[in-house]
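Supplementary Note 3. Input sequence used for the single-chain structure prediction.
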Amino acid sequence: MIALSAVAVGATLIAAGCGGDDDTGATAGETAGFVPASAPVYVEVDSDTTSEQWQAASALAQKFPDWPGGSVDDLLRDALSDTDVDYETDVKPVLGDTVALAVPTIDTAGVDDALSGTISPDALGGVADDQDRVLLVAQVDDEEAARALLEEESGASAGEHGGVPYYVDGDTYAAVWDGGLVLSSSEEDLFASIDAHAAGGEATLAGQDKFNQTLESLPPEVIGQVYVDLGELVRQTAENQAQLEQLGVENVANAAFGASIAAEDDGFRVKGAVVGAVVEDQPQFDPTLTENAPANTLLYYGFSDLAEQVRTALEQGLSQADNGDETRQQLEAVSGQLQGLLGISLDDLIALTTGEHAIIVTPGGASVDVPVTGALVLKVEDGQRAQSTLDALRNGVPGLLSTLGGSSANLPDWRQVPVAPGVTGWQLPLEDGISITYAVDGDLAVIGASPRAVAQALAPQQPLASNAEFTEAIAGAPSPLTGLMWFDVAGAVELADRSGQFAGQPDARESLRPLQNIVFWASGTDTPTFEAFLRIE
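The predicted structure, written as discrete structure tokens, is reproduced below.
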């Protein structure tokens, strides 16, 4: 059982970097028929390590210097080298098409402890550590051989449940029946698996419409796919927890999340979707500001209508707060004071943040003391109004600081600086080569950390949109999008190397060499989907 557990866990972890790619939809393996319907988490992998996907994943992994070498079978064989079980003769012939890991229920004790005080990373980490109830399910081609392996490890059967013999070895419970092997960390969960499989239909994950619909939103023929029943997860963790109930859990009562990962010739591709959630309409856009990012951009994040997203979040928060009306009145009062101090209206600020936006991070340049610089680019409908709004903010900040009890005496003076042909911006120098600089040109308003960052956004010598690696990476993106991100991993590593971050650590630098870039996009409103691709060379 220890040997089979190692194989199942190893296959699950390795296959987290693999998967298929098609548009016809995925299905679950027979392992889902051994998992109770209430299980909130299910991870399934293909145990055929000779498949094209496994071979592609292995080829990509071997590009990393830390990879121990060999095939997936070699790794699993090595993992069992210290046991009495031979992978080739005892394990591999026994396994069928799929191996799965499921969390049958969430241990809410850790959640209670975390929410009893301030939620911290340590508290949340403790919640994860407390989740020790798992099911490992494997299809088996040879029940007799699998049962013999269990008897060899644990001895005679410890008893029967529902007519199925089961075995116990320390804290592990196991049974083989109907072409399936189930390993559990508790007797209760093993018996629940036996009962659910016997009942069939809606008693198992395989019989749940939400489960099947979620997997259908993913590519087929995947080596690895993940399913999370968000509604069940929230129900189990939010029981008697007022803090979670206030977060609008009804929006995910019928929601589920699914994702798969595929190995391609030049990288790994992740695809995912959320089905059944009550989702507010997300602002959508067709990316155009990639024309305003330099080709050597390290990080690009495109989104739209920030004002609408803030308004939606604020409205949801106010509707769920006990003192929502009182809080709304206080916000309105503060808004009125700000308008009086800054000389602009709330509508002016909204107009500034209603169109397409982009955050652009680039190398700082040899003459700049900081290694990177960046800018926020806003596409606006009225450039003159945007200029007036930003100018009013510049002139109104000293008065605002005085009102808030601060002092503007130590602030340097704003100064005008040229940022592009025929365009002059305003700069507030700070320190260490950092400043606040803004400029407006036509329908673009740019706020940057340096005049160079603003200049690059207004007139890049070569845009990101013409970068061959970027255009190839987003070639399959749908239209419109709700978000787009690009991260030049190789460029960031090179910059860190030039900055001395890898001094004395040549192995660390070399281990990152195969990583090239990551592209991510999200789309859809009723059924949000996302896709990410990590390019490896």
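Residues 318 and 326 are 9 Å apart (CA to CA). The longest strand covers residues 95-103.
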